[in-house]
Amino acid sequence: MTKLHFTAAPDAAEALAEMRARHDDAGAENAQVIIALGGDGFMLQTLHGFIGKNKPIYGMNLGSVGFLMNEYRTEDLLARLAAAERAVVHPLRMQAHTGKGVTAALAFNEVSLLRETRQAAKLRILVDEKPRIAELICDGALVSTPAGSTAYNFSAHGPILPIDAALLALTPISAFRPRRWRGALLPHRARVRFEILEAGKRPVSAVADDFEVRDVRAVDVAEDRSVAMTMLYDAGHNLDERILAEQFSD
Question: pTM score, two decimals?
Fold first, then answer.
């Protein structure tokens, strides 16, 4: 029998108790599959929490959107796991440079740069060390993985990417100049560098999923293929299908 460990968001305590009443909890170290109860934000937390543990994660939605989750049902969990389809995701590695040094963090959805004050941000963007945008005046910009392309990236009018696309989305947030630049699709091997212009007057923060670094001077972003996490989805409702369906939703 598959050994399970259940973990839950704070507001999913009742569901956690119900699932543990139905199934033995083998603990985080002994489990073969991690069951995450919550919303998309909690799935991201669980992915970060189990990096390097080589344990697939099956999410059940008790949040609002639940794009990264499966439907919450108490019955037939073991049968659903036996038929589940796998999606392997790789995070972005952010290196944020400030006056105090360099801070690194991983992001399974996106790395975003955001203005901290009423002043618009001014960014220079380099791809593989080649300048591509000399000065982007904007509220911010982001680099998204395929898994994260339906989240903040899509809200900022970025493209939705198939989960197995070897691509990253580079998307501006409320660009003022150049006004017509809508972003770019990059090979997944691309290395993106943001240099903050007039950083003292126009401070910018950098966020990797939910980890924020304020007052950055430059930010380097690249996919980290050394880290791989597996998510499990009900048969016929895998992440590929969800991303495809999202492009035809109203």
Answer: 0.90
